[in-house]
Amino acid sequence: MAGMNISCAAQLSGVSAKMIRHYESAGLIPAVARTAAGYRSYTPEDVHRLAFIRRARAVGFGTPEIRQLLSLWQNRQRPARDVKRLAVEHLQQLQERIADLEAIADTLSHLISHCRGDGRPDCPILDSLAAEDPEPETRSNRARRRQASK
Amino acid sequence: MAGMNISCAAQLSGVSAKMIRHYESAGLIPAVARTAAGYRSYTPEDVHRLAFIRRARAVGFGTPEIRQLLSLWQNRQRPARDVKRLAVEHLQQLQERIADLEAIADTLSHLISHCRGDGRPDCPILDSLAAEDPEPETRSNRARRRQASK
DNA sequence: ACTTGACCCTCCCATCATGGGAAGGTTTAG
DNA sequence: CTAAACCTTCCCATGATGGGAGGGTCAAGT
């Protein structure tokens, strides 16, 4: 019945109007109904779908994964296995990113702890960045090796 | 003397030719010398600077921070304090991102552990994403609160 | 000398999620 | 009837990175 405006749908779903249009153009949500004047008109179901997307994004899923999640959600016959596999893969990616960031943070805090940080110019942080030889263990390093070993 | 080609500089510095041009247009490195034909010509110093940038990026610094690091590096009179402050701020950001990702990963692995993942369709992961009410603790949540409390 | 392959150049486009903003039409309350 | 508050589409920007097209250049082999 009462279709609502995009800004109303935005408030109810917690997704900005900007992003709602974006998701529509990205095909995450089907094109909704329009009023005579061309205004988008949302049903509560549309809003529910948008909120689903918001929550999926909040746990870090990207557009392609969300697309799959939505289709699994719609499908009453889905095997929970498929959902779980998707989630586990995503979790592994998250854990990789966390490990990468932690390695970086460790390197950095190591450097920081060796820097007196007073008014004098000598600083092991800059020294390390300027170092000729040693290539420290970094994300891009390991990513490169991962690539190479594929 | 022997200025080198961009691909040579790329190999020596570990920065792709693509990114070298990019850093130049972004102003991270001054425009280098050109041959008569317009080819960029790099000195060992240029390469050193590029490698500095690569290492700075490897510990996660972004363009603006690297800009500052480079100018501190050039400046023989810099106080180590300034370098350290930059690094500490960056480390804090890293730790925030790590905490955010860990919160997400925790939520996700919690959901996963409750999903049998067999051939049947009921799945707490989808249920949670479709949930009407409870808004789980997420990065965007806290970021929003941080914004709001500023 | 001439061809060929390996370079180099500059632009443009795409990613991913998000927002800013302009130009212009619509609706609604005063 | 007007002004505010909507709505629409389209373009641009972020940040790091790569792909590719179209076109010029250089070095080595014939």
- Total tally of structural domains of chain A: 2
Biggest sheet layout of chain A? 2 strands, antiparallel
CA distance, first residue to last residue of chain A: 54 Å
Q: Indicate the low-confidence ranges of chain A by residue numbers.
A: 135-150
Strand fraction of chain A equals: under 5%
Mean pLDDT of chain A: 88
Helix content of chain A: 55-70%
Largest interface, by Cβ-Cβ below 8 angstroms: which chains and how many residues each?
A: A-B, 61 and 61 residues
Shape of chain A: elongated
CATH class value of the largest domain in chain A: Mainly Alpha
Instruction: Give, in order, the helices and strands of chain A.
Output: HHEEHHHHH
The total of helices of chain A stands at 7
CATH domain topology of the largest domain in chain A: Multidrug-efflux Transporter Regulator, Chain: A, Domain 2
Give the CATH architecture of the largest domain in chain A: Orthogonal Bundle
How many DSSP-defined strands of chain A?
Answer: 2
Oligomerization: homodimer
Q: Give the structural class of chain A.
A: mainly alpha
Estimated radius of gyration of chain A: 24 Å
What is the spatial order of strands in the main beta sheet of chain A?
1-2
What do these coordinates show?
Two copies of one chain form a homodimer. The first copy, chain A, is built from seven helices and two strands. Chain A is an all-alpha fold. The first copy, chain A, has two domains: 56 residues, Multidrug-efflux Transporter Regulator, Chain: A, Domain 2, CATH 1.10.1660.10; 53 residues, no CATH class. Chain A has a two-stranded antiparallel ribbon. Chain A starts with 5 loop residues before the first helix and ends with a helix. The C terminus of chain A is likely disordered. Chains A and B meet through helix 3, helix 4, helix 5, helix 6 and helix 7 of A and helix 3, helix 4, helix 5, helix 6 and helix 7 of B. Chain B binds a DNA duplex (30 and 30 nucleotides) through helix 2.
